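wait is this the right file?? whatever heres the structure
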């Protein structure tokens, strides 16, 4: 799966759109692929234009996108050996579009088309391969013979990029970006929540017993707590845990009977 470690998310999003467009509607003679390990490396297979010494050849190249792309141009390299004035022996590409004429608004499609056009019309005046540049200016036939020889030996058809590989990579990349964004939000929320610790509610029993080491006091508080919660099926009891005494009730009833008897006697008189 492609990663986005080397490029900003905004650039990745735009790049994904461009790559999908190149995959669905490729320029003539150009097929694009991506590096599953690093999204900042773009591969392309370029077919040698007809009527040139590179005809019938397939040249693989890559574009390296820096972290500040598109403000700075990508670097282009041919991975297939080629005899060309504007391509160094190490594969580096020299073209004004990737140097002084670079514009951040230029897209990958424009870059790849310019590179293919370079195979049609080389610029020996700004040669990286001096031998090829000098030969092109002095003896075109000899230059063309060398170029065809390189093409026949090195520019054989390459294994084709997997169909739909770009769409799969860009889709996976978008999912990865989404998951990373969600993870960042969750981490921020967790960090902010950790700094706002809410006070723990204190139950009446905890508040009343806090700081007291008196066994008798603790016994009364535990009994009251058990009464409030109904632990063990105990009903409402006094603080001490015993039922209220009812010894005074019979005496009250006897006194009331005597008073009623006196009232009846007075009425008879």
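ok assuming it is, sequence goes like this
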């Amino acid at each position: 799966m492609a990663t986005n470690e080397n490029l900003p998310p905004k650039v990745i999003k735009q790049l994904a759109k461009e790559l999908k467009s190149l995959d669905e509607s490729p320029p003539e003679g150009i097929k694009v692929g991506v590096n599953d390990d690093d999204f900042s490396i773009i591969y392309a297979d370029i077919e040698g234009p007809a009527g040139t010494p590179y005809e019938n050849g397939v040249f693989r190249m890559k574009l390296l996108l820096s972290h500040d792309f598109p403000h700075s141009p990508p670097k282009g390299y041919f991975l297939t050996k080629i005899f060309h004035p504007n391509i160094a022996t190490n594969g580096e590409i020299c073209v004004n579009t990737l140097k002084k004429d670079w514009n951040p608004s230029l897209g990958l499609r424009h870059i790849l088309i310019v590179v293919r056009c370079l195979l049609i019309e080389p610029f020996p005046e700004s040669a990286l391969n001096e031998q090829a540049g000098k030969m092109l200016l002095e003896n075109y036939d000899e230059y063309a013979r060398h170029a065809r020889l390189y093409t026949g030996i090195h520019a054989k058809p390459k294994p084709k990029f997997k169909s739909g590989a770009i769409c799969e990579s860009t889709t996976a990349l978008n999912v990865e970006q989404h998951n990373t964004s969600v993870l960042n939000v969750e981490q921020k929320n967790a960090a902010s929540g950790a700094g706002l610790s809410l006070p723990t509610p204190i139950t009446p029993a905890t508040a009343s017993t806090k700081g007291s080491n008196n066994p008798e006091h603790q016994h009364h508080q535990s009994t009251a707590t058990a009464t409030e919660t109904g632990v063990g099926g105990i009903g409402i009891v006094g603080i001490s845990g015993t039922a209220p005494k009812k010894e005074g009730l019979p005496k009250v009833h006897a006194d009331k009977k005597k008073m009623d008897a006196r009232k009846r006697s007075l009425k008879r008189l």
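The helical segments are 9-24, 108-120, 130-138, 140-154, 165-194, 204-209, 215-229, 249-268. so i think its the right one actually
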